[in-house]
Design a protein that fits this description.
single chain, 166 residues, alpha/beta, five-stranded parallel beta sheet, globular, binds shikimate-3-phosphate, magnesium, aromatic amino acid biosynthesis, ATP-binding
Length: 166
């Protein structure tokens, strides 16, 4: 990999409902850094919602757009990036994040995520709790492998998580 010196991004990864977007947005306000969300970047690129992309174009199209938008962040500096929960599914994405900055894994428990997933439009095919549990079990080692910093967000205030996120 070419190392993109000086991007200085911070990437927040974790399962649905871990609070990535909220934390990145609030940290951005606190430290006057821009926040971007990879799902929003994909929606802007494709002109439709994440669930429409999954339904109409399939997960592969979503993942291709997600990787393309992630790579494009190499042209920017000092971002706080909240990443879609499945970004660690592709090792290329993990390589890109490590080239451009540091990866913070917000480790929550399944109960938090399942409460979030109850909104079906977020990820229709994760609707069943059993399926979501299986996905999280499969992904946990991927998050751990990708993380430069792991923050256990259970029973923590925003300030505590922010401090531990470095
Ligand atoms: C996904 C999580 C979503 C979004 C898409 C795929 C996943 O992001 O990228 O629905 O595979 O877990 P959030 O974690 O921000 O909801």
């Amino acid at each position: 990999y070419v190392v993109h010196e000086g991007c200085d991004h911070i990437f927040f990864v974790g399962f649905l409902g871990a609070g990535k977007s909220t934390l990145a947005r609030n940290l951005g306000s606190l430290f006057h850094r821009s926040h971007v969300d990879t799902d929003r970047l994909v929606e802007r690129l494709l002109g439709k919602s994440v669930s429409e992309v999954f339904a109409e174009d399939g997960e592969g199209a979503f993942r291709d757009a997600e990787t393309g938008e992630l790579a494009a962040l190499a042209r920017r500096k000092s971002l706080l990036v909240s990443c879609g929960g499945g970004i660690v599914e592709r090792s290329k994405n993990c390589g890109l994040m490590h080239e451009m900055g540091v990866v913070v894994y917000l480790e929550g428990d399944l109960a938090d995520s399942l409460r979030q997933i109850r909104c079906p439009e977020r990820r229709p095919d994760l609707g069943s709790n059993a399926h979501a549990a299986a996905v999280l079990t499969r992904r946990r080692p991927l998050y751990e492998e990708a993380a430069d910093i792991t923050v256990d967000i259970r029973n923590k205030t925003f300030e505590q998580v922010a401090l531990e996120s470095g």
